[in-house]
Write a structure and sequence with these properties.
31% of the residues lie in helices and 22% in strands. The chain is an alpha+beta fold. The longest helix is centred in the first third of the chain and has 24 residues. The structure holds 2,5-anhydro-1,6-di-O-phosphono-D-glucitol and manganese (II) ion (2 copies).
Length: 318
């Protein structure tokens, strides 16, 4: 299975061969290349856990009557363990942890964030779910624009795919039956305008301006595409080359629902690298300062036309 024994761990021999080859040509530094590769590999283990759980999400008993961790926590453990021995991750911040976990000795270059299992409420329905990862240098309490060096997400659907960017375009890989990630699309580029929209939140909770924006998209003929999983919903917009995902400010929750650090920053990084745009309705997601782990904010993300339109509608006097 290809060339790959040079990474020092025979478990990984032959995995993501194309990913490694691709990243060489993309000018990504060696350590970051290895880190992205290790994180991509967690997708295999997490998907094995999903299979093992047989669609049960919460703590459950296995065949031998032993209590199992919830899938969210299992995925978190898998990622944390993988990073623990990487040698170049200083801190790990996860949606499943109350505080930042110190992994290194204090001199390592990278800080990793994770939403280990996104869309976990969809597990029982067998809809697609995902994993979202951000990689930062120096600190995570910063503007994404200043701290992020890479991001990736994994989709668990009929196929397992991995989309990453290390600041040199956005690339998609598909996990094959031999357990290798094979490059499927290099330098994904979105169109200026798409034809789908993916609106999170309840209509009765929308602000007047947001509602007018959605009515505009509907009048323009945009088709509704909302699964309730952030990863597959964003992935659909990327792969279809356009459209918009929103989880807006709601009347009772002005910061929306999704988390800036674990969910929004990584997706903004990936979509910007594919020629798209991500804002909170005013400012770029990657310009927002992260103050705390649980920080939430509204999001409009996708192709330029739809996201710019959202800004116009939100700025209007209501
Ligand atoms: P998580 O499973 O990591 O908590 O995230 C769920 C998120 C995201 O996947 C999705 O976009 C959003 O919640 C859906 O929210 P609604 O159920 O309010 O539509
Ligand atoms: Mn999530
Ligand atoms: Mn989650």
């Amino acid at each position: 299975m290809g060339e790959g024994s040079g990474e020092g761990n025979s478990d990984y021999t032959g995995l993501v061969v194309d990913l490694r080859r691709q990243m060489w040509t993309a000018g990504v530094e060696e350590e970051l290349r290895r880190l992205i590769w290790q994180l991509a590999v967690t997708g295999k283990y997490i998907s094995a856990k999903i299979h093992e759980s047989n669609r049960k999400l919460a703590g459950f008993k296995n065949l031998y009557g032993e209590e199992q961790l919830s899938l969210d926590r299992s995925a978190d453990e898998i990622i944390k363990n993988q990073l623990q021995f990487s040698g170049f991750v200083r801190e790990y911040a996860s949606e499943e942890q109350d505080a930042v976990v110190l992994l290194g000795k204090g001199r390592e270059k990278y800080f990793v964030t994770a939403d280990p299992l996104d869309g976990s409420s969809l597990v029982d329905t067998n809809l697609a779910i995902g994993t979202i990862i951000g990689i930062h240098k120096k600190s995570i309490f910063a503007r994404g624009r200043d701290s992020m060096v890479a991001a990736l997400y994994i989709t668990y659907g009929p196929l397992i795919t991995m989309v990453y960017s290390a600041g040199h375009g956005t690339h998609e890989f598909v996990l094959n039956r031999e357990g290798e990630y094979v490059l499927s699309e290099e330098n994904l580029m979105m169109d200026q305008r798409g034809s789908i929209y993916s609106p999170g939140g309840l209509r009765k909770d929308y602000t007047e301006n947001h509602l007018k924006y959605l009515e505009y998209l509907e009048a323009e003929g945009h088709k509704l595409r909302y699964s309730g999983g952030f990863v597959p919903d964003i992935n659909q917009i990327l792969i279809k080359r356009g459209g918009v995902f929103t989880y807006p400010a709601l009347k009772k929750s002005p910061h929306g629902k999704l988390r800036l650090l674990f969910e929004l920053q990584p997706m903004a990084f990936i979509i910007e690298q594919a020629g798209g745009v991500a804002t909170d309705g005013k400012e770029a997601i990657l310009s927002l300062q992260v103050e705390n782990l649980d920080q939430r904010c509204p999001i409009y993300i996708g192709s330029r036309f739809e996201v710019d339109k959202a800004k116009e509608f939100l700025a209007a006097e209501s």
